[in-house]
Amino acid sequence: xxxxWLAVVGFWLLSIVYFIVYVNDPALRLAVDQSSTLSIIHGxxxxxxxxxxxxxxxxxxxxxxxxx
Length: 68
Hints:
mainly alpha
């Protein structure tokens, strides 16, 4: 189970790095706007960012409230 959470954290951090680069690079924004493949990748990164954040919060809450 530990490898699963490490993967979630890794993908979540990757999506954060992607969006930092996306916000600061006008050429990347233009490329995403013009390419359907890059738009799909952008959507996947968005899902990883939001879903990973929810998963990490839910996992943390589960760990806090289910200690034995």
